[in-house]
# Entry
Amino acid sequence: MIPSLSLLFMDIKKIALSLLMVFASSASGVHSGIMTSNTVSDIPSQTKIIRATASGTPAGIEKNNPEIKKDWNKPFPILMYHHVRIYNNPHDPIGVNLSVSPKNFIAQLDYLKKSGYTTVTFDDLDNGVIPRKPIVLTFDDGYDNFYTNVFPELKKRGMTAVSFIIVNRVNQKGYMTANEIKKISENGVEIGCHTWTHPDLKESKDLNKEIIQSKKTLEKMFNLHIVSFSYPSGEYNARVLNEVKKAGFEYAVTTHYGVANTKNNLTLPRIRISPGTNLKRLLEKAGVK
Ligand SMILES: [Zn+2]
# Structure
């Protein structure tokens, strides 16, 4: 599941080489077909690796600086989910509290649809896809019930979401397999990074592995350019934030409560969805119109 260390280093070298090529080509005004077959020859589709912005600039270059303002400052809600499942184990109150029943979840999707919201991903926002009432649905940890209970309901309704994956949980019991992650990604669900081992990043001795290598590994595994990150349990400090900037993430979500806007895109607040949440009331209370 996880590439061997030597393979990983080869990949890092490849990625570094590719980035150099992007910069070199950008400087000479050539924007298309930059990461060519010699860097990703084993992967047929390259569509998501280079994303062109409206101005035709290769993505991931000019926007690594979080100080650069997006054209759009309108607030947008980001919902935070974990499990969508039926679960009432009295010995696991935390697990219960992180679970929304499929029935409630479906009702919430239908409510959003009926109320004129359009689900978007961070990648969409980055590409300037800004509908009248945007909302981001985020799911932390990459649990298997995303694949069984969330993905089919999103698909039925033409909706999307962001799934934050922990590298060392891929293919583990209770989590999505690599094939499932590939499938959701191919169907428009954004794959975000949720570290390598899900530590408290404030205490972590290896931020490079947790933040930078985890991003690169997921990008290689799923042939993606990853733009978003989720801090495990919302924990971060200046050192962590700095590493997230260095990794090149353009959006990072916390567990702070609130409605997001693109002014603070590496410390984005979210609205937590609990088992008994009344979404309509919650959004009204948060001042979302
Ligand atoms: Zn988590």
About this structure: The first helix runs from residue 5 to 27.
